[in-house]
Structure formats: structure tokens, C-alpha cells
Design brief:
The chain is mainly β. It is 9% helix and 47% strand. The protein has 2 domains: 2-65 and 103-238, Alpha-Beta Plaits, CATH 3.30.70; 66-102, no CATH class. It contains 2 helices and 16 strands.
Length: 241
């Protein structure tokens, strides 16, 4: 089977946790849906293309930054000063009031990423490779302003094999639930419920998540034991989900 291997970097990035409100906290690595969205945007896909993703990487440090936050409720406007801005609403008689104010967002600095893209339809490999190798406009990952600099993009072969010796991870990684057997990896880690694929309700236009992945965030230096069944690209172990 073939996959696309990407080595990339970002000066600053934020991969927001949906549950964070007062402070927009960031995942330590981009979730699956974020990487898949980047690939779809680069390729101009208008319908969902099934693909498995492996996400690994590191960052230098975390920091907080101020940003302007806007909150609103369609069709509700308080003219006595509760709302600092207002905009007309096409489907309601009343304007929509907007509360404007400062808030905090968590950023990761000097992010290094190792990504593997494996589309279910292997005939799309060449097309995705060309679009990622020579994008029509700049690529981003996380927020629109979080530019993604591609250092290397390759087409590679991946195989499943049994580890002949212990393997020490060279960077942090998401390891999906069920990828390894109990005891195959020595690590103290956090388990995240990460979004992967969404569907839009045709009646309401509301997006809901159709597929979510339970994945363990395993740190650099963690050891995968000899004898574990893994997928490799010849240099790195990868964790497709």
C-alpha cells in the first residue's frame, strides 16, 4: 500500500479543543479532522474522500495570546448598551446584537510535524501528492493564519510487520485505540476523543460528527515493545486511523 509522507513546520499554531471556552486551549497535535480538512482544501475536493491519517510531531513551548472575541444570538439586540455592535438579520425582524471583548487563546510555537496520508482509493495518491507538493495557494493547519510550511512531501510504500527490537518514538504521536495490544507501549499518556469525519444535516445545515477516534497522545521517547505488530514506512512507525 502507498501513502504520502509529509514533513512540515509551523511557527505558531492552535488546534482548538472544542470543549474549551474561556481560554481556547490547543491539542498538542492537530486532530484528524484538521489534517483531513487541510488535504481537502489543498486538493479542492467538494465531497468527502475517505483517508487514514497518522499524526506525529513536537512543539517548543506553549504561550497565550489575546484576541478579539465576538458573541451573538441571532435576532436579539439590546439597545441599552449590552451589545457593542449590531448587524441586520435577513430572516428576523430584529437586529442581531454582538458583544465584543478580549479573550485568550493558547498557541504552540515552533511546531514540527510528521504526517502520513493514506487515501482508501489508492488511485488518488498521485493527485493528492501533486496538490500538496505544488499547492495553488498557501496551506494552513489549525487557524487560517497558522501557515503550514512543507519541508518535504514524498510518495512511499507502507507495510505491516513485527518489531524485531524495541522502538523508541522520535516525536510525540497519536496512537488510535486498538492499534497496539495491552503492554506493547510503555507510556504515561492522555487519551483524547478526536473528531475525524462530519456530516451536515440537510434540513438544518447543522454539522455533526459521524466518526470520532479515541487516541492516546504518546510522548517522544516512549518505547514500543519488541514483537508488536506495527505499520512502517521503512524509517518510522506510523499510526493510521
Amino acid at each position: 500500500m502507498k501513502a504520502i509522507k509529509i514533513i512540515a513546520r509551523q511557527t505558531l499554531a492552535s488546534y482548538r479543543k472544542p470543549s474549551s471556552l474561556k481560554i481556547k486551549e490547543s491539542y498538542p497535535l492537530p486532530p484528524y479532522s484538521t489534517v483531513i480538512g487541510m488535504v481537502h482544501a489543498a486538493c479542492g475536493f467538494e465531497e468527502y474522500v475517505d483517508m487514514d491519517i497518522s499524526i506525529q510531531g513536537n512543539y517548543y513551548t506553549r504561550l497565550n495570546e489575546m484576541y478579539t472575541k465576538y458573541e451573538f444570538k441571532p435576532g436579539f439586540y439590546d439597545p441599552k448598551g449590552r451589545h457593542s455592535l449590531k448587524v441586520p438579520h435577513k430572516d428576523m425582524e430584529k437586529d442581531t446584537g454582538i458583544v465584543q471583548g478580549p479573550a485568550n487563546i493558547e498557541l504552540l510555537s515552533e511546531v514540527k510535524l510528521l504526517l502520513h496520508i493514506c487515501p482508501n482509493d489508492q488511485n488518488k495518491i498521485d493527485y493528492i501528492y501533486q496538490k500538496l507538493k505544488n499547492p495553488e495557494e498557501y496551506l494552513s493547519l489549525g487557524r487560517r493564519e497558522d501557515l503550514l510550511v512543507m519541508e518535504n512531501v514524498d510518495k512511499i510504500d507502507i507495510i505491516q510487520e513485527e518489531l524485531k527490537q524495541d522502538y523508541e518514538l522520535k516525536q510525540d504521536a497519536y496512537i488510535p485505540e486498538g492499534y497496539l495490544k495491552a503492554g506493547d507501549c510503555k507510556s504515561q499518556a492522555t487519551i483524547y476523543k478526536l473528531n475525524k469525519k462530519y456530516t451536515v444535516n440537510p434540513k438544518t445545515g447543522v454539522r455533526f460528527w459521524e466518526k470520532q477516534i479515541y487516541a492516546t497522545h504518546v510522548s517522544k521517547g516512549s518505547v514500543i515493545q519488541e514483537g508488536a505488530q506495527v505499520i512502517t514506512d521503512g524509517e518510522e512507525i506510523i499510526f493510521l486511523a
